[in-house]
Each structure stands twice: as structure tokens, then as C-alpha cells.
Amino acid sequence: MVEEQILMRPENAANLSPDSVAEFPVSPPVYTDVVVVPEQEKDVLQNLISNLESEIKQLRIKQRTWDEKRRGALRRILDIKGSIRVFCRIRPFLLAEKRRGSEPVSAGSERIWMKFGGRKKDFEFDKAMVCFEIEPFAESVFVEVEPILRSAMDGHNVCVFAYGQTGTGKTFTMDGSNEQPGIIPRALEELFRQSSVDNSSSFTFSMSMLEVYMGNLRDLLAPRLCNKAYEPMSKCNLNIQTDPKGFIEVEGLSEVPISDYAKARWWYNKGKRFRSTSWTNVNEASSRSHCLTRINIFRHGDGLEARREVSRLWMVDLGGSERLLKTGAKGLTMDEGRAINLSLSALADVIAALKRKRCHVPYRQVFC
Ligand code: ADP
Ligand code: MG
């Protein structure tokens, strides 16, 4: 190895007299390393480089094969578990319910028992989870969601939604609190984490948010004149279109690129602020609409033959079904409750049709 010292001077230094050069302030020397490889070692090094390159190629092929196997195994696990799975999450009693002396619910791992007017009834689920006052969220709900996220990143369309009566904890499960982030913020974080460790593909993501309010579709990420929730939206009552391949698309729905978790959280919080909520007897901030968060996942394989795949992850916080007498809703709040009840019973028809693998699934009735 030969080390050369190159002293840098201004370009016109050559034209200066020796005296003026002496006066010229000396610049600090800049050192560079020049590696001179002896001729006889050149071939050896070139051989080494090409061996390493072919080893990398082999490892890439191996990684792709393992990745295919992993995807296949996950697909089989999810097939065995079922493409529609229902989990029951039982929240702790709220203060008012404790005062009322509400009947406790008991639960096994897949079954819950409740008392209705002196009679005991039981319900079966894929998994039942009882939440205690201080609950490790990751242990219960998110553990079930993680493989579903992996499946979405593998190219499958996935939908996770919370369904139940008003006040049962749907928004808490999907959105959570600062101390206990719910499924949506945790899923966003997990998508970026998984994409950063996946060497076989590169991922890009975009996000859309909409709400179904009184039978209308509203774009929650549409640009507005100011950031106020009561400001009229520029995109209201959007249309649903079915493309020639049978995919369902919401015409004109805003879609924002999300390059990292911080951006995704920023857009998600922004969309959430514009969602319709109001007060009822059973919930201080009752969601008056169905709120849908859609993540578009673009996956690019690393091979030459790799295609770009697009999949969608929907995370939905549904409005709660309501017994209008119990909620004490009046006027607009009562109309909202009616619209929610109607669309939820239509959703039940959709799920029943999907479960029975019927050729006609009545999707459109949900937006009645
Ligand atoms: P929904 O969206 O089903 O109408 P919310 O998510 O708004 O119901 O929950 C109603 C109330 O119950 C809220 O005050 C919420 O903080 C509380 N809650 C719901 N789930 C839990 C839970 N797992 N742990 C503690 N509090 C909860
Ligand atoms: Mg809610």
C-alpha cells in the first residue's frame, strides 16, 4: 500500500512569485489512500469477487424459496383456522355498570356464558378474551392480528373489524388510548417493522380513510379549507364501483402515500378527527358511523421476473348496534342509530353469504 500526500493549493498558486508563495497561508494537507494491487494478486481478487457474487445469487434464490415456503405454510395455517374468524373481547365493567351491579360474564378460551333474565346462555367463538383493568394488549388481541398482517403483506386482501353494541369497546379495540394503542396504530407500526426486516421484497404503502354515515360515504382524508371537523367536506357521498375483475373500488377516494410510521399516524389521527361522534346514555363519545381505514400494500419482489403485487388491508371500526330506548337517542342521533342498525343487519347478511360461499354477496345493501 502506498500512501501519497497531496497538498492542495489554489489553482493560480503556480503564477505567484516565491516570495508571495511564502506569504500564502498554508492549507491543511489532505491525505488520500491509494491502494496499488500487485499484478499477480489481481486475478486472485477478481476470482474471489466473482465467487462471492455467485454465492450471493445462490443465497438470494434460497431465500426466495424459503420465503415461498413460509408464505405457503402461513396460507395453510390461515386456511385451517378459517378465512372468517370471530374473536370475542370482553371489556372490564365501567364505573356505572359496577354501581348497577351488572352480572359478570364468564369465559373459557372459546366460549362465553352470560345471564339473561335468570337464564344462562352461552356463545362460541374462535377465541374469547377477557380484559382486566390493566391488560397487556399484546398478549390477547394483537397476537391474533399479527399473522393476518403478514398474510396481507404476502399479497392477500384482509379485513379486520370490530362489531358489537354501542359502548362495548369497539373503538377502544381498534383505536385504543395513548397508554394502550389499539389494533390500527399497532398494525401500522408492525407493517413498517415487518417491511424493514423483509429482504426478499421491498414495500410501499398508501392510506385512505372513509366513513359510512347515514348511508353516505365520506372521504376523511379529502383536503379541506381548514382543519375543523365541522368544515364541509370536499368529497361526500362517493360512489362504489366494481371493476372488470370484480374488485370493489370507491371512486375518487383520496389516497395518501405513507413512507413511515410517523406519517401514517399523522394521517390516521387527521382522518379520525373528522369522524362523526355524539353523546348517548351508554357512551360519552359514541361513534355515529362506520369508520374504514384502508392500507394499500405494494410489494415489489427482488428478482428480475418479480411482479408488483397490490393487496389491501382494511381495518374497520363499526358503529354500534343500538337499542334506541336504552341509548335515549333523539332526533338526528336516533336517525343515526337507525341507519347504523340497518347497515349492521345488512352486514350480517354479507357475512352469512360469504361463510356459505354463495355466488351472490349482497355488498351494496350495507350502504343503505
Ligand atoms: P364502542 O366503540 O363499542 O361504542 P368504546 O370503545 O367507545 O365503545 O368504549 C366504551 C367505553 O369503554 C369507553 O369509555 C372506553 O374507554 C371503555 N373501554 C372499552 N374497552 C375497554 C378496555 N378493554 N379496557 C378499559 N376500558 C375500555
Ligand atoms: Mg365506537
Automatic annotation (TrEMBL):
Q: Which Pfam families match?
A: Kinesin
Q: Which SUPFAM superfamilies match?
A: P-loop containing nucleoside triphosphate hydrolases
Alphabetical list of Gene3D superfamilies matching this protein: Kinesin motor domain
Q: Does the keyword ATP-binding apply?
A: yes
A biological process term (GO) from this entry: microtubule-based movement
A GO term, aspect molecular function: microtubule binding
Record-annotated residues binding ATP? G164, Q165, T166, G167, T168, G169, K170, T171
Keyword terms, alphabetized: ATP-binding, Coiled coil, Motor protein, Nucleotide-binding
Q: Single GO cellular component annotation?
A: microtubule cytoskeleton
Q: Matching InterPro entries, A to Z?
A: Kinesin-like_fam, Kinesin_motor_dom, Kinesin_motor_dom_sf, P-loop_NTPase
**Positions of the Kinesin motor domain:** 83-368
Q: Which residues form a coiled coil?
A: 42-69
Q: Which PANTHER family match?
A: KINESIN-LIKE PROTEIN KIN-14U, KINESIN-LIKE PROTEIN KLP-3
Could you say which protein family the record assigns here? Answer: Belongs to the TRAFAC class myosin-kinesin ATPase superfamily. Kinesin family.
Protein name listed in UniProt: Kinesin motor domain-containing protein
Q: Which organism is it from?
A: Arachis hypogaea (Peanut)
